[in-house]
Amino acid sequence: MFTAKILLLGSGELGKEFAISAKRYGCQVIACDSYAHAPAMQVADESEVFSMLDADSLRQAIERHRPDFIVPEIEAIRTEVLQEFEDKGVTVVPSARAASLTMNRDRIRDVAAQELGLRTSKYRYAESLDEARGAVEHTGLPCVIKPVMSSSGKGQSTVRTSGELERAWEHAVANMRGDRRKIIVEEFIPFEYEITLLTVRSRDGVSFCAPIGHRQERGDYQESWQPTPMTGKLLADAQEMARKVVDNLGGYGIFGVEFFVTRDEVIFSELSPRPHDTGLVTLLSQNLSEFDLHVRAVLGLPIPSIRLNGPTASAVILADRDAERFSIKGLKEALSLSAGESEVEVRLFGKPMTRPCRRMGVALASGSTVEEARERAREAAARIRITYEA
Ligand SMILES: Nc1ncnc2c1ncn2[C@@H]1O[C@H](COP(=O)(O)OP(=O)(O)OP(=O)(O)O)[C@@H](O)[C@H]1O
Ligand SMILES: NCC(=O)N[C@@H]1O[C@H](COP(=O)([O-])[O-])[C@@H](O)[C@H]1O
Ligand SMILES: [Mg+2]
């Protein structure tokens, strides 16, 4: 009775929206993550709780469910097991190689910079504080330190003086996901702005969403907006680089390709072979969200022209402390900001626990300009209040 059976590896807010889109197209979704009641588990047909870095647990889950598609939603997965099942004919989205290359920052960076010759920041890897000191000789200061396996800025620091390096190394080691004590040391790029270019690779070819501008703090996205003004040449350069890297990875799905933009140059930063957090804005900004597009590309369904509804923005709703008992109020006040043509939406993720700076929801708003949309989204997010019970 189902279109297809999907095993979703990672069940956060991005997986939740993907699962909703997949259910709309008649799929069966089994949502997996390392903790119970994760956002996507609340909307899936079934759920599994296990460490996706544990090969045996992952293998057993795949064998138990025998999915048509395995859809990784995070990087921290034992990707060797995905390759095993792809070799047996199970489709890994977009491919087992893509999941393996993007699991760790270093491998996709080397493909982009060395194999494809894309412009990136200067960089070196380090597996000790001494090696990190040597890497800084190459990148110069300021530089950015990141664990090779991490996302949402976890373990990331900007180092401006050599005296800050040791603390940055320790922060990276303490916050890395997975089992590799390895960091990337990158030249700091004083970009004018940065974008996510959502790039859809399907049987119809490669298509692009309008560039999404975003603002980051602590290496984690705080706001995003669409469209973001770019000169024709810079946008064409970004699209050319994105096409090169997604064609190299192959397979079908949506890719979040991140670029820094200086006055006259586009610099490749990184890529996620899946919907991107800054792309949450597409829930309101486009005829098809990044999640709809991912499902369509995965299932081999048509990808029509991607239409932008108008200037739209997103603003995150963050917790500020650890808590297991809390409530979220203010929906009515936030949604009452809709005015005339301008819409406001809120998505609450349903995460069972809060942590400092954990993303618990997102506010979305349209406007006659991007600035107006951003202001309205920030105001809507500010009206959502998390109250913590002792
Ligand atoms: N080399 C750099 N120069 C300047 N800023 C940087 C650099 N690298 C990262 N940043 C800043 O930190 C943000 C997060 O970096 P990055 O995307 O590499 O981290 P991440 O943990 O992979 O985040 P996510 O997976 O959520 O995209 C970037 O969007 C940018 O604002
Ligand atoms: N930049 C990557 C990103 O945004 N990933 C999203 O955050 C979730 C983890 O959130 P959590 O740490 O709050 O559980 C992931 O499952 C994914 O949905
Ligand atoms: Mg990023």
TrEMBL record:
GO terms for biological process: 'de novo' IMP biosynthetic process. One of its GO terms (cellular component) is cytosol. Pathway: Purine metabolism; IMP biosynthesis via de novo pathway; N(2)-formyl-N(1)-(5-phospho-D-ribosyl)glycinamide from N(1)-(5-phospho-D-ribosyl)glycinamide (formate route): step 1/1. Its EC number is 6.3.1.21. Mg(2+) binds at residues 258, 270. ATP binds at residues 105, 146, 151-156, 186-189, 194. Coiled coil: none annotated. Keywords: ATP-binding, Ligase, Magnesium, Metal-binding, Nucleotide-binding, Purine biosynthesis, Transferase. It catalyses: N(1)-(5-phospho-beta-D-ribosyl)glycinamide + formate + ATP = N(2)-formyl-N(1)-(5-phospho-beta-D-ribosyl)glycinamide + ADP + phosphate + H(+). InterPro entries: ATP-grasp, ATP-grasp_carboxylate-amine, ATP_grasp_subdomain_1, PreATP-grasp_dom_sf, PurT, PurT/PurK_preATP-grasp, PurT_C, Rudment_hybrid_motif. GO terms for molecular function: ATP binding; magnesium ion binding; phosphoribosylglycinamide formyltransferase 2 activity; phosphoribosylglycinamide formyltransferase activity. HAMAP family: PurT. Belongs to the PurK/PurT family. Homodimer. This is Formate-dependent phosphoribosylglycinamide formyltransferase. The lineage of its organism: Bacteria, Pseudomonadati, Pseudomonadota, Alphaproteobacteria, Hyphomicrobiales.
